[in-house]
């Protein structure tokens, strides 16, 4: 059902009605601009409609705030994840830089030791460390082609670390001081007492044995190679006494020592191309001794 337009718009020519409306509009604009007659009306309308406007805008605000919250939460989680990854990478780089600096300092000390040494030596790198919890052996990247031979000493920047046991073409097996029952003859630097240093296993303190005068030992005494075995050059630093347990029964005391070189810290070490002179004369056996040996053997 169609409704008819108001009677006001059904009377007169359209151009007249348009002109009247334009005059009314101009008057209202002039009154609002110059006389400010509509400000109170607008203020009243705003005060009346503001609560309704606030209520109607609540769903929109809720949607906007919810989207901003989830967006901010997602961005925050992403930022935290990126920062955590960055911190881990920086920590890894810092640790790597610290390790490289430590290794660089060790190489400088090894180079200085090589320059001061009275015999030839070559630098070597650990290429394999067996995971055997009992054995204390490593494999280095120097072998027969480099002049390495079984029995040659291995040293770090601070002292003796071990001895070459097997040699291959381009690599060698090295037994470290901590290897169980590995021994090296030493003497006390302070008083010249001689003895033997024995390994007791991985992470176990070394043990000093065969000392005649245990009462002349002190914690902090340095042990150096005696050179009497013909394997190690004399005077090379080996270990330091850390504990003397005089309550032990039987042997009289248990002397614990710590290697001066950290056996598990660095990747580089030195092979001492040390060739001891073993020209000692062979003991002469008289005919009487030979005859007695033959009689014992039934010959």
Helix/strand class? alpha+beta
DSSP, total strands: 12
Portion in helices: 25-40%
How many separate domains make up the residues?
A: 2
Distance between termini? 148 Å
CATH superfamily of the largest domain: Rod shape-determining protein MreC, domain 1
CATH architecture of the largest domain: Beta Barrel
* Residue share in β-strands: 15-25%
Number of helices: 3
Q: What is the 3D form?
A: rod-shaped
CATH class of the largest domain: Mainly Beta
Low-confidence stretches: 280-290
Rg from alpha-carbon coordinates: 47 Å
Order of helices and strands: HHEEEEEEEEEEEEH
Mean pLDDT: 76
Largest sheet, described in full? 6 strands, antiparallel, barrel
Sheet with the most strands: spatial strand order: 1-2-5-4-3-12
CATH fold call of the largest domain = Thrombin, subunit H
Description:
This protein is α+β, with helices and mostly antiparallel strands and 299 residues long. It has 2 domains: 15-116; 121-272, Beta Barrel (Thrombin, subunit H), CATH 2.40.10. The protein is 37% helix and 22% strand. The protein has helices spanning 14-35, 39-116, 287-296, and strands spanning 121-128, 137-140, 153-155, 160-167, 172-176, 183-188, 194-198, 206-209, 222-225, 237-245, 254-259, 268-272. Strands 1-2-5-4-3-12 form a 6-stranded antiparallel barrel. A 6-stranded antiparallel barrel has the order 6-7-8-11-10-9. The longest helix has 78 residues, at 39-116. The radius of gyration is 47 Å and the shape is rod-shaped. It starts with 13 loop residues before the first helix and ends with a helix.
């Amino acid at each position: 059902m169609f409704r008819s337009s108001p009677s006001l718009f059904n009377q007169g020519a359209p151009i007249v009605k348009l002109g009247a409306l334009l005059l009314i509009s101009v008057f209202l604009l002039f009154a609002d601009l110059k006389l400010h007659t509509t400000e109170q009306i607008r203020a009243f309308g705003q005060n009346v409609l503001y609560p309704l406007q606030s209520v109607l805008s609540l769903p929109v605000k809720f949607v906007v705030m919810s989207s901003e919250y989830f967006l901010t939460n997602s961005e925050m989680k992403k930022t935290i994840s990126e920062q955590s990854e960055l911190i881990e990478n920086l920590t890894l780089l810092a640790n790597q830089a610290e390790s490289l600096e430590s290794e660089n300092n060790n190489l400088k000390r090894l180079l200085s030791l090589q320059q001061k040494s009275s015999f030839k030596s070559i630098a070597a790198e650990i290429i394999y460390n067996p995971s055997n919890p009992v054995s204390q052996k490593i494999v280095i990247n120097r072998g027969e082609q480099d002049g390495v031979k079984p029995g040659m000493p291995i040293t770090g920047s601070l002292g003796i670390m071990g001895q070459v046991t097997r040699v291959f073409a381009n690599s060698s097996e090295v037994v470290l001081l901590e290897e169980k029952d590995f021994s090296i003859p030493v003497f006390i630097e302070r008083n010249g007492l001689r003895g033997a240093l024995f390994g007791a296993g991985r992470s176990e303190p070394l043990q000093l044995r065969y000392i005649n005068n245990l009462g002349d030992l002190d914690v902090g005494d340095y042990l150096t190679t005696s050179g009497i075995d013909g394997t190690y050059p004399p005077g090379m630093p080996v270990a330091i006494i850390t504990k003397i347990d005089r309550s032990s029964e039987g042997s009289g005391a248990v002397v614990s020592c710590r290697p001066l070189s950290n056996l598990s810290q660095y990747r580089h070490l030195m092979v001492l191309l040390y060739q001891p002179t073993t020209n000692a004369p062979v003991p002469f056996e008289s005919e009487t001794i030979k005859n007695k040996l033959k009689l014992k053997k039934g010959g």
